[in-house]
């Protein structure tokens, strides 16, 4: 499936669908620009089949299977991914261009953890109940039974394809739903490989379906506009999220949106510079800056500004761009040429806006084989006002702009001066200040002296343009189920 000119196929009702060569697109290696394979695009009819297969799986009793049976399925899926660990690593690295070292430690490891964590979370879940005093002096027992939402459309982006997909599929299946997933057109392979694992783990036909394609006028729209879906969980850009919301609105279905970010780091001058620079660098350059949680704005207290700027520039220069299959490679390419064009557009905007370039700002030359890839230099700027577009719009590349501040209040104001609200990181050695500032951030997740440390039982999501709702732990159980309050007169 992942090598040569093999097909990446759709998976519907427990079976891979024969591809139609006239309805297909190329799967491109972002590191070289070479075609890896063809991907079968799902048309309206196939999306209909997938949604009907999911409905049928529900009608055949999947929601009524004992919780233990569903959580054991999740554990078998985790074991199945583990057994094919290197297949997932090479498929994910080929699709995204990310170094195999990261794919191993982050993407595939987290996919396994997602299935195991949600097996635990669902197995341990309780339910709310209240004894209610009624006006006539008697009592009633109120309790809520949580029932699966039904058929859930799962739409995910290309930056952490398997991690984000399994973050949704695991709780959805554990709660007794059936899913139709639409991976990004850029990264179709691991969702498809997962279909083999889920099938072999014994999931009933129709509980997990994969349809490939694009957004508008393609599988993404066909799926979200489908009258037989019961909810949509979407991770992607804020503008696409808004479009999906409009598509779903007429049928008033629940949505969960994990969207873009323009995340700030606030660095106080009491820090240990070396340690903080290492953490900051990770938050800017991980996955070539293509993590929704990546830092793109760095506010540094004036006394520490020069040391932090110099340290970060040095770190950027030490990153090793190159063949993602080599173990020493730290940094891969951007996902595509069109994404690189977008990032280069911001390079021009920064220059026009009078930014001072600390490092980067161009396209690296890495040797013949990689010249066709979407490579870009890790880039840092100073000298931009908070109102500049580079400071306000999500760039989604290995970039950040540094701005000095004097007081704590000023730092909080600068960090919160954004339409987004996904993540923030506060770097300080003052414990009280760390808590205080982290709590003032208008974001879904606020780290102190760390970044991207994740607890899967915690609520995850964003404020403002960064999303609607939360997933993770109980929040996932709330999204993937619909409660019925039963009230019994005692
Ligand atoms: P995107 O919005 O372009 O695409 C996301 C998915 O939506 C893809 O599968 C795409 O095919 C599909 N899609 C596009 N148009 C659609 C439509 N009209 N109807 C239905 N589906 C449609 O995003 P992207 O470029 O793939 O990913 C990068 C973005 O994702 C960034 O903005 C990033 O911040 C965000 N992101 C957010 C989180 C989070 O947890 N908040 C995590 C990862 C990525």
Automatic annotation (TrEMBL):
Protein keywords: NAD, Oxidoreductase
Catalytic residues, chain numbering: 258
InterPro entries the record matches: Ald_DH/histidinol_DH (IPR016161), Ald_DH_C (IPR016163), Ald_DH_CS_CYS (IPR016160), Ald_DH_CS_GLU (IPR029510), Ald_DH_N (IPR016162), Aldehyde_DH_dom (IPR015590), OHmuconic_semiald_DH (IPR017628)
Classification via Pfam families: Aldedh (PF00171)
Gene Ontology molecular functions: oxidoreductase activity, acting on the aldehyde or oxo group of donors, NAD or NADP as acceptor
Residue intervals of the Aldehyde dehydrogenase domain: 17-485
Similarity field: Belongs to the aldehyde dehydrogenase family.
Protein's name in the database: Putative 2-aminomuconic semialdehyde dehydrogenase
Organism from which the protein derives: Gordonia aichiensis NBRC 108223
Taxonomic lineage: Bacteria, Bacillati, Actinomycetota, Actinomycetes, Mycobacteriales
């Amino acid at each position: 499936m992942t090598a040569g000119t093999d097909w990446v196929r759709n998976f519907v009702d427990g079976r891979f669908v024969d591809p139609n060569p006239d309805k297909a697109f190329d799967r491109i290696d972002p590191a070289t620009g070479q075609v890896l394979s063809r991907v079968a695009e799902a048309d309206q009819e196939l999306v209909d089949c997938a949604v009907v297969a999911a409905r049928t799986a529900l009608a055949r009793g999947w929601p009524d299977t004992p919780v233990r049976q569903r959580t054991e399925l999740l554990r078998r899926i985790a074991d199945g991914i583990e057994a094919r660990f290197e297949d997932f690593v090479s498929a994910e690295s080929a699709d995204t261009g990310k170094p195999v070292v990261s794919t191993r430690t982050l993407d595939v490891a987290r996919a396994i953890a997602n299935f195991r964590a949600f097996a635990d979370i669902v197995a341990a879940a309780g339910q709310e109940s209240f004894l209610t005093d009624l006006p006539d002096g008697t009592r009633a027992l109120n309790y809520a039974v949580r029932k699966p939402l039904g058929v859930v459309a799962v739409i995910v982006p290309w930056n952490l394809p398997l991690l984000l997909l399994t973050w949704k599929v695991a709780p959805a299946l554990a709660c007794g739903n059936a899913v139709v997933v639409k991976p990004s057109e850029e990264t179709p392979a691991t969702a498809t490989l997962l279909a083999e694992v889920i099938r072999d783990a014994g999931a009933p036909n129709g509980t997990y379906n994969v349809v490939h394609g694009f957004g508008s006028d393609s599988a993404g729209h066909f799926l979200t506009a489908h009258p037989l879906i019961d909810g949509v969980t979407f991770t992607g850009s804020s503008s696409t999220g808004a479009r999906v919301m409009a598509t779903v609105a007429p049928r008033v279905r629940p949505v969960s949106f994990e969207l873009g970010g323009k995340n700030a780091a606030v660095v106080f001058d009491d820090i240990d510079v070396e340690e903080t620079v290492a953490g900051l660098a990770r938050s800017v350059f991980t996955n070539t800056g293509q993590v929704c949680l990546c830092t793109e704005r760095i506010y540094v207290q004036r006394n520490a500004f020069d040391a932090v700027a110099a340290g970060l520039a040095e770190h950027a220069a030490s990153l090793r761009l190159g063949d993602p299959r080599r173990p020493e490679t730290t940094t891969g390419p951007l996902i595509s040429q069109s994404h690189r064009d977008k990032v280069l557009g911001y390079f021009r905007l920064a220059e026009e806006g009078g930014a001072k370039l600390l490092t980067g700002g161009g396209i690296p030359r890495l040797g013949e084989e990689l010249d066709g890839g979407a490579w870009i230099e890790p880039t840092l700027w100073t000298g931009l006002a908070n109102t500049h577009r580079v400071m306000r719009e999500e760039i989604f590349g290995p970039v950040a702009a540094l701005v000095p501040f004097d007081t704590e209040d000023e730092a909080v104001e600068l960090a919160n001066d954004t339409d987004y609200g996904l993540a923030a990181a506060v770097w300080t050695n003052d414990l009280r200040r760390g808590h205080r500032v982290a709590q003032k951030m208008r974001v879904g997740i606020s780290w102190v002296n760390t970044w991207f440390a994740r607890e899967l039982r915690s609520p995850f999501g964003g404020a403002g343009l960064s999303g609607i709702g939360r997933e993770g732990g109980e929040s996932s159980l709330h999204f993937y189920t619909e409660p019925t309050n039963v009230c019994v007169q005692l």
